[in-house]
Amino acid sequence: MHTAQKHGFSLIELMVVIVIMGVLAAVAVPKLFGLMAKSKASELVISASTYIKLQDAYNIINEKQIGSWSSIGYEQKSNSNFKYFEGNSENGDPAKSSVEVTDGKIGGWKAVSVGALNGCKAQSVWRIDLSASSTDRLIYSVKITGGAAGECAVLSASFDKLATDGQGIGTP
């Protein structure tokens, strides 16, 4: 007598595997979208810190002057995630040349999100305003607007660390 050997998986075993894969996918997919939004927002900190370093160098070399993007050598092109603007006006009008540092807010850098990034709605704004300190160094004020319950700030957590008190380059 021959005994039949079993080959393959039963229907129950296949169903259990499919259910396990479904549960794993339900947990992993939202996490993946959150990480994708964070990676898109990470470009903001890099772009803004480059702007700050170039502006500080220009300010030191040109004795209390704040330069336009072109005069400090900063170039940032808008992309599918963000639109970048020179200046701190709401319409993004650029400062055409260097201006002297005063106590008022001047110059600046602004990024506007093109689309929604998780809880951070489209048209959210990341902004840097400049002003003078008593030591004639630049003070960088950062502001993030848009999204509910600080969702935009969560995406770009180190953006707030770009703010300075004017005591020196990169002094938090």
What's a concise summary of this model?
The protein has helices at 11-61, 69-72, 151-155, and strands at residues 65-66, 82-86, 99-100, 106-113, 125-132, 138-145. With 172 residues, the chain is an alpha+beta fold. It starts with 10 loop residues before the first helix and ends in a 17-residue tail after the last helix.
| Molecular shape | rod-shaped
Strand order of the largest sheet: 2-4-5-6
* Helical proportion, percent range: 25-40%
Taken as a percent bin, the fraction of beta residues is 15-25%
Oligomer: single chain
The secondary-structure element order is HEHEEEEEH
Number of helices: 3
Span between termini: 85 Å
Helix/strand structural class: alpha+beta
How many whole angstroms does the radius of gyration measure? 25 Å
How many strands? 6
- Please, what is the average pLDDT? 79
- What can be said about the biggest beta sheet? 4 strands, antiparallel
Poorly predicted parts? 90-98, 168-172
